[in-house]
């Protein structure tokens, strides 16, 4: 008797869809706080979701763009303040 369920194709698709949504949310949140951490995480999640063939390609591309924007914003504020971090 088998007690654990086998992973199905649908489970894998749901996982990649979740990665796409998570990359979007983390990228959006990274514009406000902790962009040095959340930006790269959003980029990695979006890339993995796209590589695995997510059904939410638009959300994954938005997460990828927002992750890159997080790092661009961080670099811009670092240049303006001449510090490693930025504040309002």
Record the SSE blueprint.
Layout: H1 9-30, H2 35-52, H3 57-81
Short overview:
The chain has 88 residues and is mainly α. Helix content is 74%, strand content 0%.
Give a verbal description of the structure.
It contains 3 helices and no strands. With 88 residues, the protein is an all-alpha fold. The termini are far apart.
Query: pLDDT below 50 for ≥5 consecutive residues: which ranges?
Result: none
What structural class is derived from the secondary structure elements? mainly alpha
Query: DSSP strand (E) fraction?
Result: under 5%
- In total, the number of strands is 0
Give the helix level as a range of percent: over 70%
Largest pleated sheet: none
Silhouette:
elongated
Rounded to the nearest angstrom, the radius of gyration is 16 Å
Distance between the termini: 60 Å
**What is the average of the pLDDT values?**
84
Contiguous helical run count: 3
Order of helices and strands: HHH
């Amino acid at each position: 008797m088998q007690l654990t369920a086998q992973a199905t194709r649908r489970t894998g698709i749901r996982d990649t869809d979740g990665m796409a949504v998570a990359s979007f949310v983390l990228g959006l949140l990274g514009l406000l706080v902790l962009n040095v951490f959340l930006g790269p995480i959003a980029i990695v999640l979006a890339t993995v979701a796209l590589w695995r063939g997510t059904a939410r390609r638009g959300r994954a591309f938005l997460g990828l763009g927002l992750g890159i924007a997080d790092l661009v914003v961080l670099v811009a504020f670092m240049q303006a303040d001449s510090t490693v971090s930025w504040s309002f």
